[in-house]
Amino acid sequence: MTELGLLGPENTYHDMARQKFLPNVSHVLFHSFDDVFKALKEKRIKKALIAIKNNTSGLVGDNLERIKTSGHRILEQFELPIHLCLGSFKAANIESIKKIYSHPMAIKETKKFFVKYSHITFISSTSTVSAIHELKNNREKNSGVIASKEAIEANDLMLLSENIEDNSTNSTTFALVENA
C-alpha cells in the first residue's frame, strides 16, 4: 500500500504541497479527486493530501464536505502560498492570447488581472498542469495557461507574466486525510 495519494500530475499545487510538507513520503498521483477518494476508501493508499479551501476564493469543490461525510478524518492541515503565472506555448504577449486553460480555482483567483482582456475565453481543466498538457497537445498559437512558475518552466513554456493572482496573500489549505 502506498503511503500517500494526491491530485497529479507532477508540479500541480498538490505536488508542490507534498514536496514542501511531506517530502519523504512515498506517493502516487491521481487524475481526479474522485480517484483519490476512491483509492483512500479502497485502502490502496494510507492517506490523501486534498486541497480544501483557498483563502481568497473559498472551498475547493466539495472536498471538505466529502471528507466529513465519507468517514475520513483530517490529521493535519498545511497552508501553501499560491502564486499564479501566465504562460504560453507560442503567444508573444497577453494581448495576442484568445484562450486560456487552467483549473477553475486558478481562473477564479485571477479574475481582476484579466478584467481588461474581455476577448479571452477560459477553458477549465482538472489541474493547472493538466491545462499545460492540453495547451501543449493542442499547440494553439494564441492560447495560454494559468499555472505555477515551476510548472510553466518545467514544461518549457514561455513565462509571460508572474504573480497574476488577485490577492498577494493567496494561499490554499491542504488537508492530510485518512480513513477513520
UniProtKB/TrEMBL annotation:
GO MF terms held by the record: prephenate dehydratase activity
Reactions catalysed: prephenate + H(+) = 3-phenylpyruvate + CO2 + H2O
Transmembrane segments: none
Enzyme class, first EC level, given as a word: lyase
Keyword vocabulary terms for this entry: Amino-acid biosynthesis, Aromatic amino acid biosynthesis, Lyase, Phenylalanine biosynthesis
Enzyme Commission code: 4.2.1.51
Cited PROSITE patterns: PREPHENATE_DEHYDR_3 (PS51171)
Domain Prephenate dehydratase: 3-179
Keyword match Transport: no
Superkingdom of origin: Bacteria
Gene3D superfamilies referenced in this protein's UniProt entry, alphabetically: Periplasmic binding protein-like II (3.40.190.10)
One CC-aspect GO term: cytoplasm
Protein name: prephenate dehydratase
Protein species of origin: Roseivirga echinicomitans
